Amino acid sequence: MGVGPVEYIILGFPGNHFKSEIVPALAKLIDSRTVRIIDLIFILKDGDGNVTTFEFDQLEELAPFSALEGEISGLINQEDVAYAADALEPNTSAAILVWEDTWATEFAEAVWNAGGVMLEGARIPAELIETASTDLAASD
User: Fold this and answer.
1) For 14-49, how does the pLDDT look when each residue is reduced to its tens digit (9 = 90+)?
2) pLDDT over 70 percentage in the chain
3) Total-model pTM
4) Beta strand pairing status for 51-54 and 6-14?
5) Nearest to 90 by CA among 52, 45, 51, 54
6) In terms of Cα–Cα distance, which of 96, 18, 8, 16 is closest to 49?
7) Do the Cβ atoms of 57 and 27 come closer than 8 Å?
8) Residue 84: partners with Cβ closer than 8 Å, 6 or more residues away
9) Pairing state of beta strands 36-45 and 92-100?
10) pLDDT of residue 116 exceeding 90
11) Going along the chain, which residue ranges are E strands?
12) Domain locations in the chain as residue ranges
């Protein structure tokens, strides 16, 4: 079986408060085989700028994340943590999430088998799509 495209995201949580509201939505993506979690780590930057990392089983407020199926593999390294932490303001937390887009595995295999290669790709922020859609609707 092939592997679909793999992505990462860094989610910020101002005030150093991880909230578990994202767990049910992420669980639905996993249950529907839309994504497969490969790695997940949490970062906390305190008021003095000190950075600490946590796995989901190290803080009580992260316990809901333990219900997610995945391979929490250690793929995220210290360089990745430092990169994410540099962007954090003091008293801010982040989660780095690496997942496989399992919904695209068949397509990725077809591209590979056809001799195709990925030349470029990017995630377009929802705000840009909303603005463009509004502008297009206004021009009609």
Assistant:
1) 887 766 777 888 888 888 889 888 888 889 899 999
2) 85
3) 0.77
4) unpaired
5) 45
6) 16
7) no
8) 10, 43, 94, 96
9) antiparallel
10) yes
11) 6-14, 36-45, 51-54, 92-100
12) 6-105
For residue 82, give the nearest of 118, 110, 56, 52 by alpha carbon.
52
The Cα–Cα gap between 79 and 94 comes to 15
**Residue reference for tokens 């997942």:** 99
Of 118, 97, 93, the C-alpha closest to 107 is: 118
Mean pLDDT of the chain: 84
Please name every residue paired with 42 in a beta bridge, in sequence order, or none if there are none: 54, 95
What's the rounded Cα separation, in Å, for the pair 86 and 126?
24
CB 4 within 8 A of CB 103: yes
pLDDT bracket for residue 113 (50, 70, 90): very high
Residues 6+ apart with CB under 8 A from 74: 39
Q: Whose CA is closest to 64, among 26, 30, 120, 110?
A: 26
